[in-house]
Amino acid sequence: MAAVEPSAATTGDAPISYSPAAPYSARLREALTALSEACDSGNSNAAETASFTISDILDTAAIVSAEVDDGSEDASRPGASEELLREVLEFLSRPSSISNQMALDALSLVLPKPVAKLGAQMGRCRDVAAAILKFFVSNCSPRDMLSILCEALDAPMELPNGLSSFVLLLDALAKVLTLIQRRYIEQVKVALPVVLKVMHTAVSECVEEHGSAAVDLFNAAHNIGNAIQEMCKSMLDKNKDLCAILGLYSLQNIALVSQSRQQDILSACGSVIFQSFNFLISSGFTYLGLLTGSDVTAAIDKLSKSDAEEDADFVEYFSFAMDGAALSVVWTHMYDDNDMSKYAGEQLELALKEVQGNHMKKWEAITMLKHVLSSIHYPWIIKSHGLNLMLILAGENHVEEINNHVDFTCYAPRIFATLKAIESVMMAAPAALVRKKAFVALKKVISMVPSSQRFDILQALVNNSTSPSLTAILLDLVREEVSRESRRADNDCVEDDGFRGSGLPRWASHALELVELILRPPEGGPPCLPDHSEQVISALNLLRFILIIDSRDQGRD
User: Fold this and answer.
1) Which residues contact 71 (CB under 8 A, 6 or more apart)?
2) How far is CA 399 from the centre of its chain?
3) Taking burial as the number of CB atoms within 10 A of a residue's CB, which of 24, 238, 401, 402 is the most buried?
4) Residue 34 located in a structural domain
5) d(CA 486, CA 483)
């Protein structure tokens, strides 16, 4: 809403003018009186004009109050904002106003946004503003207030006070949702896109100094979830679509909160995230379904079953739901020794045991973590704990031999994407410990790939590597695989009374292709030195190792 001087309100045929120099409080009282008189006379046009005047006065006062460098205006003195809000609350609380629905409707249409902006000021402004918004929610149509509040929330966020004003509006919206009596899903689909937009904006723009207000905003978003949960409980036949929406909303919020890179905010948000687990449980989500992503897929499919275009658009607002599923598991693992998450920790432990005993589910769980590791949105501390969880999932069993009997084809693209995500952490993490952990995870996951397809994965990683250092590391892994196969061939030779097939082992033959790729680049010419010296040295070492194996085998012959 533009910051303009209040316009004249009229009652009947008599215009009322306001002096621009008059204090805001005096002009507000005059405008409230004009509104009362217009409503008493049934003049809807005059009532509308007066309500817009009141809105302009409050909006302008809020802007002036926020400008700390300008102390000349009446609205900038201590307590001025609270005084204006109390004038409005006192007007609304009068018996004549309560019984005058025209006045309530006119003010409820235009005041939520400026009232929330004033409520973000210092002192007791927030309490008074909350009381005004609660009054509108209690005395006006819930459906109308839902639209009005969503429109107020769908405005650009102005830091630093924008966070506090949006908290007030979200709290009011949560109260409205609890008053909705029918067509729950329709109303929720109106509200949630706006709420999630506010959350996304807050996370992307918050800095350390906004920590307290940011946590208040996350708690306000949690109250929206509480309201939806009450809707689910109030339905005699529990609506599965509404439960799916609540679960996806919780996961989206977990992902958004986890994007806070400020340590103070991130620490305080731990409790906010664990509160969301109650929503997940009540929505039918389990840690097994979160680990593998199956619950998220089922919820999205449930909401996408309709061919309606608006349903497809609505599902798009939960674009971070898969991230949230993986993050919910990572957060629980991070705080598994915390009393607050004791139950969650126990449930996660049971799910981990089940996943570790099922090789198909183990692959699904490992590939889920790529959502956390590959994203630039999440802080390194979360990625580090994600690697810890991945190593636990991989386990210490002889997975190589077991996985040789598993159909790997359907998992290959996801495993490749997961390995690329691990590489990104290995190359970019600022802490040496995290980089080392990523390297261990990379080797572990590669070792889980069936030997018949492991070279294809490594070859794809080498072909898609843009870092000479990373390429060198991958070539060293190839050399280890050649050595492992050579030892296996030696053992087979002993078991077969000294008989060994002719020629190089299969892995060595494939490895020569990679050596040629590095030493004879596809674009022609010699390797680029010294920029690519690391990968050239690794390729030469690999070639030397293959030649040693070949000469040794020829000596045996």
Assistant:
1) 77
2) 33
3) 24
4) no
5) 5
- Give the span between the Cα atoms of 407 and 516, in whole angstroms: 31
Residue 214 counted as domain residue? no
Contacts of 478 (CB under 8 A, 6+ apart): 455, 458, 462, 507, 511, 514, 542
Specify the 3-state DSSP secondary structure of 10.
Answer: strand
Q: Over the range 421-449, which residues count as b (16 or more CB within 10 Å of their CB) and which as e?
A: bbbbbbeebeeeebeebbbbbbebbbbbb
C-alpha distance from residue 244 to each of 178, 231, 380 (Å): 18, 13, 30
Task: For residue 379, give both structure tokens.
Answer: 């802080």
State which H helix or E strand residue 15 sits in.
strand 14-16
Residue 68 has a pLDDT of: 46
Quick one: pLDDT band at residue 406, thresholds 50, 70, 90? low
The answer to whether 472 and 535 are in contact (CB under 8 A) is: yes
Give domain status of residue 540, yes or no: yes
Query: Does 352 score more than 70 pLDDT?
Result: yes
Q: CA 513, 518, 523, 526 torsion: positive or negative?
A: negative
DSSP characters over 411-452: GHHHHHHHHHHHHHHHHH-SSHHHHHHHHHHHHHHHHHS-HH
Say if residue 505's pLDDT is above 70. Answer: no
458-500 pLDDT, tens digit per residue, is 999 999 998 999 999 999 999 888 888 777 766 655 444 444 4
Residue of 302 and 4 predicted with greater confidence: 302
Question: What's residue 134's pLDDT?
Answer: 95
pTM: 0.86
Domain-located, residue 421:
no
Q: What is the DSSP string of 243-264?
A: HHHHHHHHHHHHHHHHT---HH
Q: Which two tokens stand for residue 164?
A: 């506090």
The DSSP call for residue 409 is: G
What is the tally of structural domains in the chain? 1
Domain with 532, as residue range(s), is: 450-490+505-556
- Is the pLDDT reported for residue 297 higher than 90? yes
